[in-house]
Write a structure and sequence with these properties.
Blueprint (H helix, E strand, L loop, with lengths): L2 H5 L20 H12 L11 H15 L10 H4 L1
Helix pairs in contact: 2-3
Amino acid sequence: MTESLLLHPPLPRDAKRRSYWNAAHGSATALAIAEAAREHTGIVVAVTRDTHAAHALESDLRVFVGNTLDVLHFPDWETL
């Protein structure tokens, strides 16, 4: 991801479309998701490969969004 894509990630143009991103390095993914959540009027959902990655992403997101946005974690047993 270049800096411009990281700070202005591609978002769907309407509610029936989805956007898929390749993973960025380190906490850059959380920064991109936080920026997308600030720009997007709808819900932003991030899916991780396992529980460990979900907890790491959740922790990073909380750093980037602070108290400005809600970060919700759905445990794997809730999403099967």
